[in-house]
Design brief:
The structure holds 2 protein chains of 2 kinds. By secondary structure, chain A is an alpha/beta fold. In chain A, about 35% of the residues lie in helices and about 25% in strands. Chain A is built from 12 helices and 13 strands. Chain A has a 6-stranded mixed sheet, sandwiched between helices. Chain A has a 4-stranded antiparallel sheet with strand order 11-12-10-13, with helices on one face. In chain A, helix 7 links the parallel strand 6 and strand 7. In chain A, helix 9 crosses helix 11. The longest helix of chain A has 16 residues. The C terminus of chain A is likely disordered. Chain B is mostly helical. Chain B has one domain. In chain B, about 75% of the residues lie in helices and about 0% in strands. In chain B, helix 2 runs parallel beside helix 7, helix 3 crosses helix 8 and helix 8 runs parallel beside helix 14. The N and C termini of chain B lie far apart (about 40 Å). The model of chain B has no long low-confidence stretch (mean pLDDT about 90). Classes of the chains: A alpha/beta, B mainly alpha. Chains A and B meet through helix 3, strand 5 and helix 4 of A and helix 1, helix 5 and helix 14 of B.
Chain lengths: ~325, ~260
């Protein structure tokens, strides 16, 4: 569905020191600084895949998406989306793809949502009958009925995101790009959005999601591509990277009596015992592939009476944090490019 | 042809969408209508003054001069009424506003041009038409189906030339990256010079009006209609010039889109 080879984008920025004199000098002899936002990316995404595209700010995520969607012309490299060059065959490509930029809306700001959707129906030349059918399909999942008569500028963020999603999906695209689709949403709206994205996947739609939200990745995607400084540093299944990097599990105990100095590292080699906020609380961090939670509980029971406990599962959060910290090079030599 | 009709229909819907949006703010809409009426009145005062002042210029009769003037006013009116969004291009580029427009199956240039509507263009268009109507009875043209058809074609061509100039001058924003469209404003101001026969100007000014083909909005097409020697012969090519200008501006815009870098989040 999406094929990119050697995709590169170099931005040229005026290298202008502050001050009027410098500005005048710049007029006479302009100097430019080159900044490589995306440095030779190879990417191949098949039909029906849901790919999370993550990386720190400025890693080149948005620039990649803008090149894949045909918005920004690449400096070098080849792109094919459904067999088309998205920048050259902009119109044909537009019919295949749906795009949502979470931080901006494509709705007409001063028009009711219904009018915006009708304008998009005209622009995409969707026959009236199919348009109605599509709205009916989207209705139960996006709850559009209540939004249709409302002016776009009067929508709450969550409502706006739903309306924008309807706008992006109106023409039933095969590939959908979502840039920060849950940004700024409250917990309920976020869950609803993720549920909707999972349903969308089930219909065979190819998804590419750039996000900072790790819940989006774990709940919606099966493949994760991690980008740093314009290069892909990991591309593989979400579960695999989680197994390799997110191994630490933590059990938090509340004990019946104060138990200072308790340490399970001899009982459970490799584990760490961390004192909690008071002397009755203690946490044990361990590798989930070496020990089980049951072993930890049994070991603790030998030292103290356990009143209560809770378990923290490793999250993709840790993974990405460790990736950014540079851990991935050692952990995943076979995946590094 | 059917494709062009479809594009035009969608364009009209976008413009009407803007009208509906304006109507959402009732007071704003009322003020706009009021302002438009006032502009009309001011225009009439202005034009009666022009009527009284316009002399014969060289071998141009008074009503022939007014014809040129009216064609330029009409072109500006239609440009403002139907293609006002052209003037917002620099803003779109600098705010990254083209992103969504570029993922829709409709020409980006037309989406920008049709994004808004200049209500005072209405008064200019009406005034221009009215003036042409009056002038038509006073100029020495033997009106028949052919001459009327030719005059309409020349008028449409003039409108297209003006439109192409606006689009091209605003398209410079892709390269200049400043939020105001100053070159476009300069070119637009130059357009005022094109309201009179260019024979009244020095060679330098004339050259400018021919190179930036503003003289093809009113002067040359009028010269063709009134059979004014060499200028009239050149004027007969106005429809071709218009087609070339539109094609050129379109290609320039496409080249600009390749430079569009959007903005970061």
């Amino acid at each position: 569905m999406i094929e990119a080879r050697g995709l590169t984008k170099v931005f040229r920025r005026a290298d202008k020191p502050p001050g009027l004199a410098a500005s005048v000098r710049h007029l006479v002899r302009p100097r430019y600084a080159e900044h490589t936002a995306v440095a030779g990316i190879d990417l191949s995404i098949g039909a029906g895949e849901a790919v999370a595209y993550v990386g720190p700010n400025g890693a080149g995520k948005s620039t990649t998406v803008k090149m894949l969607t045909g918005i920004v012309h690449p400096t070098a490299g080849e792109i094919r989306v459904c067999g088309l060059d998205p920048h050259r065959n902009r119109h044909a490509n537009a019919r295949n793809i749906g795009v949502l930029f979470g931080q901006r809306t494509q709705l007409w700001w001063d028009l009711p949502v219904r009018d915006s959707l009708a304008l998009l129906r005209d622009i995409y030349r969707i026959p009236e009958r199919r348009y109605r059918a599509r709205l009916d399909e989207l209705e139960p999942v996006l709850g559009l009925a209540g939004l249709l008569p409302v002016l776009a500028r009067k929508l709450s963020l969550g409502q706006r995101m739903r309306a924008d999603l309807a706008a992006a999906l109106l023409h039933d695209p095969r590939v959908v790009y979502l840039d920060e689709p849950t940004i700024g949403l409250d917990v309920t709206a976020r869950d609803a959005m993720r549920g909707f994205l999972r349903d969308l996947r089930r219909t065979g739609t190819t998804l590419m999601i750039t996000t900072h939200d790790l819940g989006d990745i774990e709940e919606v995607c099966d493949r994760i591509v991690i980008l740093d400084a314009g290069r892909i540093i990991y591309d593989g299944p979400v579960t695999a990277i989680k197994d390799r990097l997110a191994r630490d599990r933590a059990v938090h105990f509340t004990l019946a009596d104060a138990c200072p100095g308790v340490d399970l590292s001899t009982d459970l080699p490799g584990s760490r015992t961390v004192a909690g906020e008071d002397e009755r609380r203690v946490s044990v961090v361990f590798d989930r592939f070496v020990h089980g939670a049951g072993d930890v509980l049994a070991a603790m029971a030998r030292h103290a009476r356990v009143v209560d406990l809770s378990i923290d599962e490793p999250s993709i959060d840790d993974v990405v944090r460790r990736v950014y910290a540079g851990a991935i090079g050692d952990a995943l030599p076979d995946r590094v490019r | 042809m059917r494709e062009a009709a479809a594009l035009a229909r969608i364009y009209l819907r976008m413009l009407l969408g803007y009208v509906r949006a304006v109507l959402e703010y009732r007071t704003d809409a009322l003020i706009l209508v009021l302002a438009s009426v006032l502009t009309q009145l001011a225009g009439i005062v202005f034009l009666t003054t022009v009527f009284a002042q316009v002399p014969a210029l060289g071998d141009w009769q008074r009503w022939e001069v007014i014809w040129i003037f009216a064609m330029v006013v009409l072109a500006e009116g239609i440009g403002s009424l139907c293609f006002e969004g052209t003037w917002h291009l620099a803003l779109y580029i600098n705010l990254g506003g083209l992103d969504y427009l570029m993922v829709r199956p409709y020409p980006v240039a037309l989406q920008v041009m049709g994004s808004t509507l200049g209500p005072n263009g209405f008064s200019n268009a009406v005034l221009g038409l009215a003036l042409l109507g009056v002038a038509a009875t006073r100029v020495d043209v033997d009106w028949g189906p052919v001459t009327v058809g030719w005059a309409v074609l020349l008028m449409l061509s003039g409108v297209l030339v003006k439109l192409a100039i606006s689009l091209a001058s605003n398209t410079t924003a892709f390269w200049l990256r400043s939020p105001s469209s100053s070159p476009a404003g300069t070119v637009h101001t130059l357009g005022d010079l094109a309201r009179y026969p260019i024979t009244v100007y020095s060679t330098g000014v004339r050259a400018v009006l021919v190179v930036i083909p503003l003289a093809f909005v009113g002067y040359f097409p009028a010269a063709s209609l009134f059979g004014k020697g060499t200028a009239g012969t050149i004027g007969a090519f106005t429809p071709l010039v218009a087609a070339a200008c539109i094609a050129g501006a379109w290609a320039y815009f496409r080249a600009g889109m390749r430079r569009y870098d959007s903005v970061g989040n």
